[in-house]
Amino acid sequence: MLGSWAMKLSDLITSDLVEVPLRAADKWEALAAIARVPARAGRYPQALVPVVEQALVVRERSMTTGMEHGIAIPHAAIDGIDELVAVLGLNPAGIPFETLDGAPARIVIGLVIPRSKKLAHIKTLAEIAKLLSRADVRARLLRCTDGESVVQALAEMQ
């Protein structure tokens, strides 16, 4: 039985898990960057970076995680971590991401999910998508220039 809870983005994102700007020429480079950020922040060992990147790529090849309104939420479940790790990348110019509406992704939320807790985090994914469906939230995030301003914006908007 799934609990009714869902983690909020503001509970998951700390300034060291924000990449502004997220530098990537395409979605594959964006996935590689998403995999590297948590290791740099000490959330999982460097040795897991290729495992995470590969899991993100496999998931992305099965179906795009590019949504509408310049949002992408790449995600993958892996072994070797105990807690959900989220990364928020911003690229105001946009990254080609094969989104549902064809627009480039400007807000990329990467979720690295412990395989053992995969079902529990479906609600978290839905909660994040719901938050980012708001134009005011997207506009505010895209004005942020560093991790601290992203964390503050999320705290004030959720």
Please explain how this structure is put together.
The model has no long low-confidence stretch (mean pLDDT 93). By secondary structure, this protein is α/β, with parallel strands linked by helices. The chain has a single domain, classed as Mannitol-specific EII, Chain A (3-Layer(aba) Sandwich). It has helices at residues 9-12, 27-40, 49-62, 122-132, 135-143, 147-157; strands spanning 18-19, 71-72, 75-78, 85-95, 105-114.
Shape: globular
The low-confidence parts are: none
The SSE order reads HEHHEEEEHHH
CATH top level is Alpha Beta
How many individual helices? 6
Class by alpha and beta content: alpha/beta
Helix proportion of residues, in percent? Answer: 25-40%
Question: What's the rounded overall pLDDT mean?
Answer: 93
What summary fits the major beta sheet?
A: 5 strands, mixed
Strand content: 15-25%
Annotated CATH topology: Mannitol-specific EII, Chain A
**Any idea what the CATH superfamily is called?**
Mannitol-specific EII, Chain A
Quick one: how many beta strands? 5
Distance between the termini: 26 Å
CATH architecture, by name, is 3-Layer(aba) Sandwich
